[in-house]
Amino acid sequence: MYQHILVPLDGSRNAEVALQEALELAQKYGSELFVASIVDEQHFVAYGYGMTVPMDFYSDMKDRSQQILAEAEKRASALGIKTTTILANGNPKKAIAEELPEKYDIDLIVMGKSGVDALSRIMLGSTTSYVVHHSTTKVLVVNDEDDDTEDDVTEEE
């Protein structure tokens, strides 16, 4: 049913829950899993760095993203799931909704309801909301079970 599943990871609890769901789906359908972490260039502008981003700040973000991807790949590998890791720079909203699905022929995106950075969500808008409304493929939004919201899982095309 799903050959290529994309799960974007940002280190948040909701992303962890989405990864678990994606692992279960990949096992069930024999899918290839694409785990992605996008170093968000908009953070630099949102937090006042503009074009003069300290190199160690960028390097720390990239290192953390690589660590998140390596952990996800290790979990998938232990389950026998073929996994491709993607570390990209850019706008996470567009990358997840449009660019990565096109480039990797993704037929399902599994993502958490909200990510790690509430300030960015307020200033720049929810990545999940953008992906649900602009995605070129199906999107499965997974809530953290500890989340007090009404809906547990939403799927839109």
From TrEMBL:
Protein localization: Cytoplasm
Sequence ranges assigned to domain UspA in this UniProt record? 1-142
Question: Is the keyword DNA repair assigned to this protein?
Answer: no
4Fe-4S: present as a keyword of the record?
A: no
Instruction: Kindly state which keywords UniProt assigns to this record, in alphabetical order.
Output: Cytoplasm
Q: What is its main location?
A: cytoplasm
Which family is it part of?
Belongs to the universal stress protein A family.
Q: What is this protein called?
A: Universal stress protein
- UniProt source species: Loigolactobacillus jiayinensis
